[in-house]
Structure formats: C-alpha cells, structure tokens
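Fold this sequence, please.
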Amino acid sequence: MRKLMWFTLGFAAACALCAYMLPAAGIAACMIWAGVLSVFLGILSRRVPAFARITVLLLGCAAGLGWFHTYDRLYLQTAAELDGQTRPFTVRSSDYGQASGYGSWVEGTVELDGRPYDAIVYLDTNRAVSPGDRFTASFRCRVTTSHGEEGATYHQGKGIFLLLYQAGDTVAFHPGEISRWDLPVRLRRSIGDLLSAAFPADTAPFAKALLLGDTSQLGYETDTDLKISGIRHVAAVSGLHVSILFSLISAVAFRKRFLTALISLPVLLLFAAVAGFTPSVTRACLMSALMLAAPLFRKTYDGATALSFAALVILAINPLSITNAGFQLSVASVAGIYLFSSGIQEWIRSFFGKVKGRTFKGRLIGWFSGSVSVSLSAMPLTVPLCAWYFGTVSLVGVLTNLLTLWIITFIFYGLISVCLVGWIWQSAAVILGALLSVPIRYVLLVAKIMAHLPLSAVYTRSPYIVVWLVFVYLLLGIFLISKYRQPWQFAACAVLGLSVALLASWWEPLKDDVRLTVLDVGQGQCLLLQSRGQTYMVDCGGDRDSETADTAAETLLSQGISRLDGLILTHLDRDHAGAAEELLSRIDTDLLILPPESSRIPGYTDGQVVYGAEDLELTFEGTKLYVFSADDQGDSNEKSLCVLFDTEKCDILITGDRNFSGEEALLRSSRVGDVDVLIAGHHGSQYATSPALLNRTQPETVCISVGRDNLYGHPAGELLTRLKQFGCSVYRTDIHGDIIIRR
C-alpha cells in the first residue's frame, strides 16, 4: 500500500495548509479533527479496505499539523517577536559577503534564546566578509514568515527566518577561526575561482552554474535563453547532477555495491554541503542513500517510498520548505517520472516495432524513448509550478533536453576533471577548460537558437494562456480516466486550444483604439502605449532589473509583439531605466529616445537613437506622440523627458520624476492642456503632480506606479488629498497590480 507515501502526502498537505491558508489559531482544531477522523476510518477500514489509504493520509495530516504547530510555537515565535524592532546583534557569517545596490549582504546566524537562527544581513558598506567572521551592530528586524507585518517572503522556504538591516553606523568585525562547518563554503569559493581561471570568459559562468549552482555571473540573456528553451534546471544544482555524480562513483567502484556505498555516501554528503543543502540536492542524496542501503540490508528499493522518505525528512527539518519552489519542482518532477515515464516509454517504443535491445538500433531507440519519456513525464506536475512561479511554459523543452542532456553528463565529468587537475597543475586545467568549452558553447548555442524560435514559449501574462492551461489539464484528467486513450487526440486538442488562446491574446489589444498599460514593477515605472497598431514603451525600471525586464518582455510577447516602435526613457535613474538593457536583449525597437547628454544603452545597435534635447513630435494615423525636453536647471529628476500621447479618444500625460518646479517649466513651454489620464509624477511624491498641473490638465484618471512597502512613503497623503479635491479616479499598482485603460 506504500503507507509511507500516503502518510507523507498527508504530512505535506498539512504543512502547505498551515503555510498558505490556515491561521495559527485553527491549526490545533484541525489537528484534532484529522486525528479523530483517522481513528474512525481506521475502525471502518477493517470492513472497507479502501479506507486504509485515507486513514494513513489523515494520520499524516494530523502529524503534519501537530509538527507545524509545535515548530511554530517553539521556534518561529521567537523570531516573530522581533519583527519591526531595532536591536543589537552579533552575527556570525556563514558565507562570503556580496555587493548590493546599497552596500553588501551576507548570510549568517544569530542566537536567540540560545538557539541559532539563519538570517540575511544587509550592511551599509561594501566590506569583505568571509565565513566565520563575527560582527556586531544594531539592526532593524524583519521576520520572513507570515507572522510579520510585511508578509511572508520566499526566504522562509530556505530556512532563513530573519532579515536584518543595519541601523547603526558602527560595525565591529572580529574575524573568527576557520571552523570545519565553514569548509564546504570555502571549498565552493575555491572551486569557483579555479573554474574562473581555467575557462574562457564566455563559458566560465555556465561551468560554475552547472557544477556549483552559482548563477550570479550567468548573465540575463543566457539565463533567459536557458529558461525559455526548457533547460534552466541544468544551471541549478539538482537531482540531475546527483544522479550523474552517483553514476560516476558507481563506475569507478566497478559497480560493487559495498564499495559504491562506501565511496558514495561521504562524497554525496560533501557535494550536498558544497551546494548548500538545497532541497533538490538533499532529496536526491537521501534517495541515493536509500538506493545504496536497500540491497545491503536485503530490502527492495521502491522509488515512490524513497521519495516520500526524503520529502518527509526535509519537511521535518523545516515544515516551511513546502513553500520552496525548488523543493516543489524537485518532488513534482520525480513523482511525475514515477507515474508516467514507463507508460510513455512503451508508447514511444510501439512506433518502432520489435527491435532487439542490444543492437545499435535498439540502443538508439532505448535512448530516444527514455530521454523523451523522462522529459514528458515530468511535465504534467512541473508545468503548473513553472507557470505559477516563473510565468513561462516552454514549448520546446522536450526537444532542447533531447539535444543537450546527453552532453551535459560529459561536461559534468569534465568539470570534475578540471578541478582535480587544477589543484595539481593549473596550466593543464586551462587546456582542459578550453577543450571543455566546445561542448559548453554547443549547449549555449542550442539554448539560444531554441529560445529564439517563434512560439518557443508562452507566458501567463496572457489570461488566455492561463485558460488554455486549465483546459489542457481538464483534458489530461479525462485522458487518464478514459479506457480508450488516444494520445494523438489529446495532443491535437491541446494544440488547437493553444492556437485559439494565442489568436485571442494577439487580437484582443488590437481591437482597442488606444490602450495604456501601467505594469506593476514595484517601486519603478514601465508604461505601454498602444494605438492603431503602434506600440511605444515609456521607461523600464523597477525593484529588480531582471524581473522588470521579464514583466515588460513577456507582456509584449504575449500580445505577439517582438519589436517596439519606440522606447522612451524619461531619465536614466535605475527605477526608470535599470531594466532597459535586459529588455532590449529580448525585444527590438525601431527608435530609442534618451534624455540629452545621456550615454547609450550598452549593446543596443539595432535602431535609431534620438537624444531629446528639443521637443519631438511623432505622428501616425491620427495619433500624435509628443516628447517634451527639459531645460538645464535642476537634478536628473527635473530634467525628465515628458510624454504626451494625444489620440482621438484619450490623451495621456507622463511627467517622469519631475517635481513642482519641473512641472511649472513643462506648463510654460509646452502645449499641454486637458488630458484624460495622468501618470502621477515621481511615483506619488508629495512634491510632484502639483495643483497647477492638475488645474491645467483636469485629468479624469490618475495612475500611480508605486511599490508596496516602499521606503519613501509613496504615494504621499498630501498627493492623495489633492487628487481627491480635483475629483480624480485613482489607480495604484501597489493595490491594483497591472492597470489597463482602454478606449
């Protein structure tokens, strides 16, 4: 019956219920009800055997609720009590410090009531920090769980329950002795440095990502290519890497069970430690350990039971691991392989008839059917997670995996060889790195080609794609319960549904005479102006450059737009232009309008560049787009370009980050009159969107592009009061998300 599997399903469901939905006050009551129902059904299962699975499931649920409640009370509450407080801490760093936009950050541990808590510490200065260093300062605390006023963050799934922001000016550093617990982190840094020295600049980032999971140097364009082409998982250390390493150890040990176990267990433990004990690596190592232990104890290895055991261990260590995307994807992919792989492989083999397995043709068919079946079988459970977390569904992933995964194994072995040789003879490692760069470039080239194919991926930025996904999974459910399964009918219906969804996504924006989209990019601004088949974007900046670029690009691609008519950057502050370079790596533009005396966007050579030193006017099919320049007075905010989108049905005014004085200069020198929509200046600052501007423009609607819980207090109460006095309808991205205005 696989009791452990059903128990783990209940345990995981309880953890998810507590993490996402159930208030703390209701956990105890639900635990009691689950326990009572399990006892009742346990009694009934003696007469109705079908109730046995439900009984074990409910027992797991009761245990999960009880464990989560205990973990919360005994451990999480201590950290939760510090939320919003400022107090001194002594932090012991557990990793190397990394530069940030405002200083540096480092992972570390602090002691609360004699127990260690993992935290991320943000420092005001960019000072070198090494594992084992200790430093003392006052920090503002934010808890990463749902107990905090600012809500839960993704850090909780990694076991990091505190974010500490330096609040004082004094930080005392005390370099500590090297502890054995710091050796894996130091080894990871040493391996990373060795790979950087051994490989050329264009392949070193991928080598480090493949072996260590370090994607910090991968680059936005390469990372996007891997994601869209469906092989992003090779750049995140996962079960794939563990299985490759395990196969290597097994071959070195001549496939002798005891010798393989003797070598594998410490090596896999070290590999997991160097990788940072990510959920996917931990899961794979635990399953590998069970696979090794089973024959030694004369037990039969069962994959589903092993997966359940690994998941249960991870959740027992940290019940909030259930919120970790890596954990969910790792478990879902392996579960999908166990559920569907054999059936898909048999179906593929049926097309080739009976072929002897030991012949070349038989081996080729076996490799092909195995590779395709593994990729396809993981998709039913991982596609919804990828759509939810990353907003992307790769349509070429199976083909890309088929073209690349066979060589990833050899690259991985090569990377291990480079490390072993490099510690002995650096010059030989450089030669090996140059040779190994050839297959790495092949993988990157395949990913780039596949990612740039038309319809290589679809995006959940389109609601029609979301509807299509729901439709496909309804079809899949019908297909799985049907007695007469016809895979081609399922595939044909899915393709037909996708065609309808794509046509709807592309046609829907075209039916509007004018359309304004204010994208929710956090504390930044990214606006899309569309009319008569023309598409202009004004600004592209937000909280995180890569996420802002993804949001902008995927919004456009979801509408079938791969080229802008123009991109206008009002000024080059990061919150308005920080993501422009990344956007232009995915979306071309015919015209780039920049503020005067600004530098070019790196890498942009595709279209015309205009510097807005003078007022510009663009006209197309009854629509006029004015770009108003600024005088030389004031800072970069006051020199923001202003944009007026003048159409027959709607006039839209954008003032960038100009404050009162900049707005007065705009009113003196331009032909701005009544407008229908005004984008509030400077993200809702009290010093922007002046009464004079409101009096001149008399906007019906005001949109504010502003981040949630921003440090500037935007939008200001004074501004909201002014807008109310002028009778404006107000829409805010921090409340309403993306704002779309159609005429």
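The two ends are 60 Å apart (CA to CA). Residues 38 and 580 are 56 Å apart (CA to CA).
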